[in-house]
Amino acid sequence: MARPAPSIDRTVALLDFLSTRPDESFSLSELSRRVGIAKPTAHAMLAALTDAGYLLRHPVDKTYALGPALVAVGAAAAARELDLVSYARDEMERLAEELHVEVVASAAVGEEIVMLARAGAPEPFGVRLDVGQRLPLVPPLGTVFVAWSPPDEIDRWLRRVGPSATATDLARYRAAVDAVRRRGYLVGLDTGAGGEPARAATPELVEELGHHEYVLLELEQAASYRPSHMAAPVFGPDASVALALTLIGFRGQLRVERVPEIGERLLDAARTVTKAIGGHPHHD
């Protein structure tokens, strides 16, 4: 696969940096240093993005912040994702009723996972994922979104881990990617680390999750499991993961044979939505 031009990579890195800090503004020197771009290059990029309306330059202190043109882009992207969700709602309701769980539809937007819709009643005192909630797309979170990505995209995802990640942790993340891609769906384990997806929004909790077996790799025949969640991909027309359908709120332990049964039912629903939106399942 052809690599994007370095200038495109730098522009994406700059916009990613600012999009995660929408209420802040930065000087040319700050952006150059924090994004790792030479000041002359950064100056040319900032000027072009400001001229296009993607950034605003403060007339007095000369700092840069996100501009109004990005609002339109973001609104268009959000509208597209919500339109996709409309095709998933019936399947989500059926899953919630059949399996007595809550079903959440989410999408990867930039370096975040955004919750788009819910079906079913949440379990009292259990995991809660609210529509509009955002989680960081940082290992081990978001495995179902990257499992079918090219190796370079998986590598970029892995590079977002915190400084305390060990070689063992990184190997576990890669093994999880392989397991999800091979099985077709993800089984997230209740780690006992305060690690429900809904409570993993802080860097500290994400790092804590990363030191546990967060994704089930292999089923053991004599075991039962308490999943925190199960997720399957909905593929778009370009065979990328457009949405994830996630089951949460499992009540008690699942017998080992129930895990693949539920996983296959979830896969059936995801395939139905993939077909409805004109998507193409990824074939290795």
Quick structural overview:
This protein is α+β, with helices and mostly antiparallel strands and 284 residues long.
Give descriptors for this structure.
single chain, 284 residues, alpha+beta, Arc Repressor Mutant, subunit A, Beta-Lactamase, six-stranded antiparallel sheet, two-stranded antiparallel sheet, 43% helix, elongated
Describe this structure in words.
With 284 residues, the protein is of the alpha+beta class. The protein is built from 9 helices and 10 strands. The strands form 3 sheets. The protein has a 6-stranded antiparallel β-sheet. Strands 1-2 form a two-stranded antiparallel sheet. It has a two-stranded antiparallel ribbon with strand order 7-10.
Present the secondary structure layout:
Elements: H1 6-19, H2 28-35, H3 39-51, E1 55-57, E2 64-66, H4 68-99, E3 102-109, E4 112-119, E5 134-136, H5 143-146, H6 151-158, H7 167-183, E6 186-189, H8 203-210, E7 224-225, E8 227-235, E9 241-248, E10 254-255, H9 258-276
Antiparallel strand pairs: 1-2, 3-4, 3-9, 4-5, 6-8, 7-10, 8-9
Helix pairs in contact: 2-3, 4-9
